[in-house]
Write a structure and sequence with these properties.
mainly beta
């Protein structure tokens, strides 16, 4: 190595014999390249590839979503394994599923109200798993109650919709819900492997699924979260099918995407789903500890949930991400063990601007993909 130094070579070893002057030029070019890349990220954000593609490996992408804030628990009380959250005005409503309660939080995360377990003389929260809104009222999938509760933002129950039993006589277990553009709802029934569409008069418009476990275009294997796009198409997380199914507004099968696997771009334990105005589909995965983003055609676009949004293998912000809710600017993720986390989707904020007090997240396990510390 000393002889190499005397001849003007660097200390990289015999397999990398480059003159020191060329080292400097290469480093300068590399620096300029990094500056140009940074300007693209922070001035005109785009999907950022972090590894190349080969014939057997799909390029890993990080979706440019900046972490805004996390609420690891309300100020006045503690929640247990929250499942979902939704925002109405300045208030965020969180399902405290483990304690059969609903928290109403203010913009600063302070508790404004808590409801449950008994809401009134006739209605009780019993393992609420999903919550949706039409901007005026709340729709709660009360899973072990086999019903949907329609509530005002003050916590008063306005209506109870009992879901029918399945073809085998098994009670319904709603775990996903979305509000349609005409004021109806779409709700999943995990026990009976079907999805039901109700109109605003609470009559069933259609059912999708055979009522028993199925796959492909025939049905579902434990359908979970549901979401709608701007055209009224319905997206269903087929939990044990490790896929997302797209249905038409009339309930007909259109397409599916997702493949079982434990690397990014695959679906291992899909939980929540949301669709933005551009048709991009956000899917939370409890095992991958990430929110994966897909195009309208099902192509993989990237993932959200790393402390350094530019590095897919940096520490995860999640433990077991579940429910998702989306606005034109933000994505809210309810994590069963890390609380409620909100991300900026506009791309106008610097991705490095992470709050100093992040949720108390378990460290990721070594390897290509981080995994949660707890089961889900």
């Amino acid at each position: 190595m000393a002889q190499l130094e005397r001849r003007g070579y660097g200390l990289w070893g015999a397999e990398n014999l480059l003159p020191a002057e060329r080292h400097l030029r290469l480093l300068a070019l590399l620096g300029l390249g990094l500056l140009a890349l940074a300007s693209l990220i922070f001035i005109a954000p785009a999907l950022l590839p972090t590894s190349g593609s080969t014939g057997t490996h799909v390029s890993t992408l990080v979706y440019p979503a900046a972490f805004l804030r996390g609420i690891d628990g309300p100020q006045e009380d503690a929640w247990t394994v929250p499942a979902d959250a939704v925002t109405v005005g300045d208030s965020t409503f969180v399902l405290d599923t483990g304690n059969n309660r609903i928290f109403r939080l203010g913009p600063d995360g302070a508790t404004l109200a808590t409801w449950g377990t008994r809401l009134d003389s006739a209605n009780t929260l019993n393992m609420p798993m999903a919550i949706a809104t039409d901007g005026k009222q709340l729709f709660v999938a009360n899973s072990l109650g086999a019903e949907v509760l329609v509530m005002g933002v003050s916590g008063k129950v306005k209506k109870t919709l009992a879901l029918p039993a399945g073809v085998s006589g098994m009670a319904a277990r709603p775990i996903g819900i979305a509000v349609t553009h005409d004021g109806g709802i779409v709700v999943s029934d995990a026990n009976n492997h079907q999805v039901l569409r109700y109109d605003k008069k609470w009559d069933i418009v259609w059912r999708a699924g055979t009522g028993t476990r199925a796959g492909g275009a025939e049905g579902f294997n434990v359908p979970g979260a549901v979401a709608l796009d701007d055209d009224g198409n319905v997206y269903v997380v087929d939990t044990l099918g490790a896929r997302v199914v797209k249905l038409s507004p009339a309930g007909f099968f259109l397409r599916q995407f997702g493949e079982r696997g434990d690397t990014v771009g695959k679906l291992s334990r899909p939980k929540g789903v949301a669709v933005d105005h551009d048709g991009r589909i956000f899917v939370s995965d409890g095992l991958l500890a990430a929110v994966e983003v897909f195009g309208a055609d099902g192509s993989y676009l990237g993932l959200i949930g790393r402390r350094d949004p530019r590095k897919v293998n940096s520490t995860t912000l999640f433990v077991a991400p579940a429910g998702l809710s989306i606005t034109p600017d933000t994505l809210t993720v309810t994590d069963r063990y890390a609380g409620v986390l909100t991300f900026d989707l506009t791309g106008h904020r610097r991705a490095s601007a992470i709050p100093t007090q992040a949720p108390n997240i378990a460290s990721p396990t070594p390897g290509y993909i981080t995994t949660p510390a707890h089961g889900h």
